[in-house]
Amino acid sequence: MRLDKVGRDFGTTRALEDITLEIQDGEFVCIVGASGSGKSTLLSLIAGLDAPTTGTITVDGRPVTGPGPERGLVFQTGALHPWRTVEENVGFGLELLRMKKTERRERVAWYLAEVGLRGLEGRLPRELSGGQRQRVAIARALVCEPSVLLLDEPFGALDCQTKDDMQVFLRQVWKDTGTTILMVTHDVEEAVFLAQRVVVFASSPGRVAADLAVALPPDRGLPIKREPDFIKLRAEVDDLVRAHR
């Protein structure tokens, strides 16, 4: 996926300016920055829900001109259909692809097992915890097997312990599926724990202030958050966010 000199104006206000990024297949990248730095606006452009004022966005070598199945998107709220069961929510995108019913059920079952929801297929969203609802949303985005998964503050509404569990879960899903992930978060610790690269956005207008490689072991558990190398990198990223807000 490549973004080349992407900008977005809203009237006389420039929300994004000269965003140039290249994300390799299978890479996990987090974007952090102060509120109002244009992080979510950028995800909307990549998802095809909005169009840039300047510049180009390409995924798999093709220009983004609107939404497409090669890009899955998960919001902070999950945005599940409340009248559909877990199984029906996850399989919704496959219905649109007109996949055979037996093949659809097999794929849905695999992804439900992958996200740890086997046995909950018949429950409605109101019967699930916040973490379980986000697992459903992530499974729904992955079941169409997109080349890029876009995550907009997916754990922002969860309590601290559930958030930790979901971070471990997401790294395992990424490892199992090999999907390219671009995630927006305001949580610096979360970004450092999850990503291979952390991109820091500056504000007014939103632009890339820093692009840092995360030189931590690929197999990470929660105890790494107490290690000196992790604490040092978290402080470095936090200082960059504060300096460019």
TrEMBL record:
This is ABC transporter ATP-binding protein. InterPro entries: AAA+_ATPase, ABC_transporter-like_ATP-bd, ABC_transporter-like_CS, ABC_transporter_ATP-bind, P-loop_NTPase. It comes from the Bacteria. Keywords: ATP-binding, Nucleotide-binding, Transport. SUPFAM superfamilies: P-loop containing nucleoside triphosphate hydrolases. Pfam families: ABC_tran. GO terms for molecular function: ATP binding. PROSITE patterns: ABC_TRANSPORTER_1, ABC_TRANSPORTER_2. Residues 1-228 form the ABC transporter domain.
